[in-house]
Amino acid sequence: MSNWLDRGLGFAVPLLIALLVSALVLLAIGENPLDTFSLMLTEGFGSPRRLASTLSAATPLLFTAVGTAICFRAGVFNVGVDGAFLIGGLAAVVAGFSLPAELGWSLVPICLAVGALFGAAWLFIPGWLLARLEVDEVVSTLMLNFIAVAITGYLVNGPFLSRQSGNNVTPPVHEAAELSRLMPPGTLHSGFLLALAVLVAYAFWTRRTPAGLEGAWVGLNRRFSRVVGVSVQRTIILAMVLSGIVGGLGGAAHGLGQLHRFTDGFSAGYGFTGMAVALLAHNSPLGMLIGAILFGALASAGTTIQLFSDIPLDLVNIIQGIVMIFAVIELGRIGIRRRVKA
Amino acid sequence: MIEQILASGVVLTTPILLAAIGGLVNRQAGIVNIALEGKMLVGAFVAIVISAATGSWLVATLAAALVSMVIGYGFSLTITRLGANMITAGLGLNVLAAGAIGFLMSYAYGSSGTLRLPDVALLPHVFPQSVESVPVVGQLLAHLDPLTILAVLAIAVLPFLLGATRFGLWIRATGNAAPVMLAVGLKPKLLQEASTAFAGFFAGLAGAQLALASIGIFNEGLTAGRGFIALAAFYFGRDRPWQTAAACLLFGLLDAAQIRMQTVGLPPRLIGALPYLMVLVALVVSQMRSLRRTQ
């Protein structure tokens, strides 16, 4: 029971701090915070159409959150899911417009597999470097993110540039390679269902498979794991590769389902928002589902609120930043300090 | 042509170098500062606003440094006192800084992305224009601003400060063995906070240089990842002042040469990734060496 309470608090406290700060910001500019928050709620969840656009915005976050959580629970501080998302997304889109359209229905699984493969290969690099050479994974994955932005930015402006539509975009994928829209004309696409499947697979992997258990052991105590015969090196590489698969799939789903092509600025910081979600949820599947939907709602409601009021969309970034800063603070410490003072 | 690359290379090196100075001291105290980027952006924004309001580059630069310093100090408290993770908190601070500035810009100035203010006082040039006639380094000297000189001075005294003063040794001891610091009755957390405030101060200077060196216009993309290049530089230089400065100069010259390399047909986007790639390679090489030594 207390475990559940702890987790709930760990989830709620950073969010509450973020809401409090944004309420102060809103007060400072002369807006009523309660009005704004309730407007956000209605804009995020108020009708089936709005709910659909929230879920659509939550889709890439679900992928990146799961990708991040796979590594975090194994104690691997991978901040490079954004890079895998980009590389996987570009690879899937390129497959989607360059493979013959005659492949028909089989295009979708092929393109998704290509995205997953490239994502896996991308994060295999820092995984291998960490496992074999103990190269600090925070720095290597951070650097790889920038390298991924550079490579995809170069390719989308060079070899894969669309001749018809000018700058920074690839040609669109074949119609057969597009993921189906679930509620046209909204953008919610079957990639959301794939994201849910990935989330369920993650839950199963963590709770019901030996590899998932070993991952958690390695995250909790590397020396213990080594002593009981778990290969720490293999577990680290596996976590990175799985993370890359999920990140690459996320990019593929975003490219095939949402944009139907690859553009500069393909990932609007999804890797980092996903990290915030995974941190907030302490890697729990249910928590990540709720967190991704909340951040999805924030993003989709933020856009409409900017249209109808003077509140800038950047409020969403303020909230996200605060959540990331306070997501992993140790609540116990605050409690102890109070007790000492009292 | 070499004159021009040298001159613009030094101008482009300064902000990276200033930020890297803060970052390396911070890391010597055991904190990897991922939030340099966000603090640079804040520094640049404050510098433009204050410079336009007061007409003084000095007041603007100091204000930028102080604001970033306060932010750095507050940020370090979440790490040292609340146990936040320094990596995620740092990434979060970058997001928060960008969000807060974007919010302020569209609310207070009604602009999205770019802020042009009248009467922004730029950094002065140290030497009179006539030094331009000096061969090779003439252009470099003519464009030299006070913050570049400050950065070079800081690099020159840092080895002494870190290696031979009490405070410097405390900083390094904190990074290497915080429990020992506690055992001898010193406060490692306080030193970490001080070093993060120092990093904030220098990141603020870096932002001010970026904003006031030549253009005098603020843009949300002004820092363009330079905080992370600074991070790359002090990783590459293994937190040592001279090596870090050399890495910064290399990255600055690369940045300056990038525009010219385009004409030879090298894609600029790929050249932009070189610093990051170099850090990756340097990390791999140094790990291979140290592993071989232990075997």
**Count of discrete domains of chain B:** 1
Strand order of the largest sheet of chain B: 1-2
- Average the pLDDT over all residues of chain B and give the rounded result: 88
Largest sheet of chain A: none
Q: Return the CATH class of chain A.
A: Mainly Alpha
Unreliable stretches of chain A:
333-342
* Residue windows where pLDDT falls under 50 for at least 5 positions of chain B: none
Indicate the proportion of strand residues of chain B. Answer: under 5%
> Which class best fits the helix and strand makeup of chain B?
mainly alpha
Order of helices and strands of chain B: HHHHEHHHHHEHHHH
Number of helices, counting only DSSP H or I runs of 4 residues or more of chain B: 13
Q: What would CATH call the architecture of chain B?
A: Orthogonal Bundle
Question: Could you walk me through the main structural features you see in this protein, from its secondary elements to its overall organization?
Answer:
The complex is a heterodimer of chains A (342) and B (295). Chain A has helices spanning 2-28, 33-45, 48-72, 81-98, 107-133, 137-157, 191-208, 210-220, 222-227, 232-259, 270-281, 285-308, 315-326, 331-341. Chain A is built from 14 helices and no strands. Mean pLDDT of chain A is 87; it is low at 333-342. Chain A has one domain (2-341): ABC transporter involved in vitamin B12 uptake, BtuC, CATH 1.10.3470. In chain A, helix 4 packs antiparallel against helix 5 (107-133). With 295 residues, chain B is an all-alpha fold. Chain B has a single domain (2-294), classed as ABC transporter involved in vitamin B12 uptake, BtuC, CATH 1.10.3470. Helices cover 75% and strands 1% of the residues of chain B. Chain B is built from 13 helices and 2 strands. Chain B has helices at 2-28, 36-54, 57-80, 86-108, 138-142, 146-164, 166-176, 178-183, 188-212, 226-236, 241-264, 268-272, 274-294; strands at residues 114-115, 218-219. At the A-B interface, helix 6, helix 11 and helix 13 of A face helix 4, helix 10, helix 12 and helix 13 of B. Chain A: Keywords: Cell membrane, Membrane, Transmembrane, Transmembrane helix. Chain A: It is a multi-pass membrane protein. Chain A: The chain crosses the membrane at residues 51-72, 84-101, 107-131, 138-156, 188-205, 236-256, 262-281, 288-309, 315-336.
